[in-house]
Amino acid sequence: MLKSAPLIEIRNAGVFRSGKWLVRDISLQVMRGEIVTLIGPNGAGKSTTAKLALKVLKPDAGEVIDAPGLKVGYVPQKLAIDWTMPLSVERLITLTSSHTKQEIAQALEAVGIPHLAKAELRHLSGGEFQRALLARAIARKPDVLVLDEPVQGVDFTGEAALYELIEKLRDTTHCGVLLVSHDLHLVMAATDRVICLNGHVCCSGTPKDVAASTEYAKLFGPRAARPFAVYEHHHDHTHLPDGRVRHADGSTTDHCYEHDGHHHGSPSSDPSGHLLPVKNGEKEEAATSMPPSPRSLRGEGKGEGQIAERKH
Ligand SMILES: Nc1ncnc2c1ncn2[C@@H]1O[C@H](COP(=O)(O)OP(=O)(O)OP(=O)(O)O)[C@@H](O)[C@H]1O
Q1: How far is ligand 1, taken at its centre, from the CA of residue 228, in Å?
Q2: Is 306 inside a domain boundary?
Q3: How many A from CA of 181 to the centre of ligand 1?
Q4: How far is it, in rounded angstroms, from Cα 177 to Cα 191?
Q5: Which of 17, 26, 48, 56 to mutate to test the pocket of ligand 1 (most atoms within 8 A of CB)?
Q6: Residue 18 lies in domain
Q7: Burial bucket for residue 119 (CB in 10 Å: 0-12, 13-18, 19+)
Q8: Is residue 237 part of a domain?
Q9: CB of 152 shorter than 6 A to ligand 1
Q10: Cβ 227 under 6 angstroms from ligand 1
Q11: pLDDT of residue 309
């Protein structure tokens, strides 16, 4: 596979269903090692575009071109799972493709839940469930990960941890990532390009470029006028298990320094003592309200989002 060729390229593609264009004239590329994030209001065509990229949906106009031999890992927005049936994490990973015990263990280790191999899905927290889905997607060592709202059912601090995990997976496996986010205001800093959809590509660029664009402001109205908090983190210090902090120069102290990475933006702090980015006044709300239950977010009984992976 050529390093400089796109892993997935969508060229002027459109999907026509039930007498209307769900999306039209969509063009985007996902390169190796790149994180591309799709944002847009409900019904803007984000999932439709992700399914185009996956070739789950065939374009009625334009084309979708994959790199030869492309392997894709997919985390769908909804899952058709019978929650009355016991289903373990390791069984989820092998539902549609076979993996050795070692591959399963590696995937679970990579997403930080090695201890949950035998756990039942219905007992997992929202964050653990999303990690199990990610483990499933990376077990086949994909060239590209397509993640449709991978932080759903997770609270604000958990969201940040999942975004960090996605960035880490990109860094360690050098895969490309196409990420769907419903969150207009919290886009991880690792995102290389944001594509803002509204049935068509409304605008695109770096998170900061898109936040500053008039098209984005027009699409999201007064919400867009509020400050756009890009989740940023700098690994200039590490919290040790005993509570001390190790700094980039190797020294350790009992607390972080004022100027340490994370220590910008909001005056609020997370449980690790880090300041969290301001989510446009929504942070407190997000932190205090209960996240939707994982089960309600798993599309129970809706029959959508069959687990799908493909290899060409
Ligand atoms: N098979 C279909 N037939 C007709 N309309 C459809 C079909 N699939 C999706 N739609 C419609 O297409 C539009 C785009 O849907 P899509 O799920 O891609 O949006 P989205 O941006 O992912 O939305 P959300 O943020 O709510 O998940 C919606 O209005 C949806 O109702």
Answers
A1: 26
A2: yes
A3: 14
A4: 9
A5: 48
A6: 8-232+277-311
A7: middle
A8: no
A9: no
A10: no
A11: 36
- Cα dist from 241 to 2, 159, 246, 254, whole Å: 42, 22, 11, 12
State pLDDT tens for residues 196-220: 999 999 999 988 888 888 888 888 7
How many angstroms is it from 164 CA to the middle of ligand 1? 28
Domain membership of residue 297 (yes or no) is yes
Q: Whose CA is nearest to atom 2 of ligand 1?
A: 17
Neighbour tally for 126: CB within 10 Å: 22
Which ipTM did the prediction report?
A: 0.97
Q: Give the separation between CA 279 and CA 178, rounded to whole angstroms.
A: 23
Looking up tokens 């994909």, which residue turns up? 142
Evaluate whether residue 257 is within a structural domain. Answer: no
Q: 30 and 85 in contact (C-beta within 8 Å)?
A: no
pLDDT at 237: 65
Report how far ligand 1's centroid is from the alpha carbon of 3 (Å). 33
CA of residue 199 to ligand 1 center, whole Å: 10
Q: Ligand 1: does its nearest atom lie under 6 Å from the Cβ of 305?
A: no
pLDDT, one tens digit per residue, over 235-289 is 566 666 566 777 777 788 877 666 654 433 333 333 332 322 323 333 222 222 2
Ligand 1 pocket, 76 CB below 6 A? Answer: no
Domains of the chain: total: 1
The one-letter amino acid code at 217 reads: A
Q: Is the CB of 237 under 6 A from ligand 1?
A: no
Q: What is the position in ligand 1's atom list of the atom closest to the CA of 40?
A: 21
For 56-62, the CB contacts below 8 A with 24+ separation are 56/308, 57/15, 59/10, 59/13, 59/14, 59/15, 60/14, 60/15, 60/16, 61/12, 61/13, 61/14, 61/16, 61/24, 61/25, 62/10, 62/11, 62/12, 62/13, 62/14, 62/25, 62/26, 62/27
| CATH code where residue 43 lies | 3.40.50.300
What type of residue sits at position 192?
Answer: D
